[in-house]
Amino acid sequence: MRNRVIVVGGGAAGLMAAGQAAIAGADVVLLEKMKTPGRKVRISGKGRCNVTNIAQLAEFISHFGRNGRFLHQPFHRFFSPDLIAFFETRGLALVKERGGRVFPASSRAGDVVDMFTAWLTELGVSVRPSSRVSELLVTDKPAWLDHNRQPQKALQAGRGGMARSQVQRCSEQVIQGVVCNSNEVYGNAVIVATGGASYPATGSTGDGYQLSAALGHTIITPRPALVPVTTAGGMAARLAGLHLRNISVNLFINNKKKGGDFGELLFMKYGLSGPVILTLSTQIVDALSAGDKVELHLDVKPALDTKKLDARLLRDLTKRHNEPMDSVLRGLMPQKMVAVCLDKTGISPSRLAGEIRAAERKSLRNWLKCIVFQITGYRGFKEAIITCGGVDLAEINSRTMESKLCSGLYLAGELLDLQADTGGYNLQAAFSTGWLAGRSAAKALDPRG
How far apart (Å, rounded) are the C-alpha atoms in residues 45 and 54? Predict the structure, then answer.
């Protein structure tokens, strides 16, 4: 057990942590509850795995919102250029695409997992699949290690003969190991990288929240993030399957504009999905949870202001004055939208373009510039790309990823209250926090410091 680091969870953060701890000289055991590690990595990026983004540091961190400042230290130690070099030196070719996104050149997410698997094997990491951790073993820190102990809230922790008495919060707890498949596995340090609660079929079922909370960690309520939303009425269902590009979407909460995005949107039977929706979904989820009124306003002609769009409509209606409206409008929008547009503006499909009055033209223009959807809810964790919420960052040392409540316990990845937009940001955070946790855990056990 000398210098043993136990890594709980074989996702992006756990795989990186295990390898880095081994490089730093530790004896590493990786416990993964699924039959194979990296299940969620294999489906990320629609099976292509958007490993990172080449955005500069300030912009990169801005995608995490107010919690992004926590990442200054992890990113200072291991950032996107380091990750790119890490993959390429191990034979995984990468390509940079639109928006600074970085993918495997093969477009196969499985290649990322295969690279990690081979790497861990070379390093001698003991990877144990089908190994579910149900408890963290802790003991009280000896008094001589902390002469300024302040008694705080007592918690029940430990297993068997270890720490069955009440242990104290803060640094008075010391990690001893884990309970895995009902057996005690001892280690000098434990890295918990179990992921969040999104895509539970891949093994991310929120186990790390319970493990962390049992030692006193505060869990910011987990919510689905980067998730599709549901809408009122039947308009979305009528447009289901339609994929729009280059549209503008504005978010209104209690009738006040609170955000917006530009890009791609997908209509679903239940509501709306696609990159622009996923980006705005965190605000939407929180607003709905607070009981607020939420609307999305779609502008399907953002390249044309109101005056230019009106001129375009007038030109088409005049030029094609003897054609029915359901034919004329196909030049302005996808065919699937035509019937919905005419229905919402009260114009008959068979009406001739030359018969359209100025007020009706205005209705068409206004609809194209502002299609309103009332948001009624959001899809669950099964469809969420990531989890919003998690272990409170105030209880984690950003320089080492060590818990401030338990010595020798490190936390990394989506388990933490860190979440960003789509674009490779979240995986980079997982790799960076995993890298730092692995290195820090091994270094702390090295008697040479």
Answer: 16
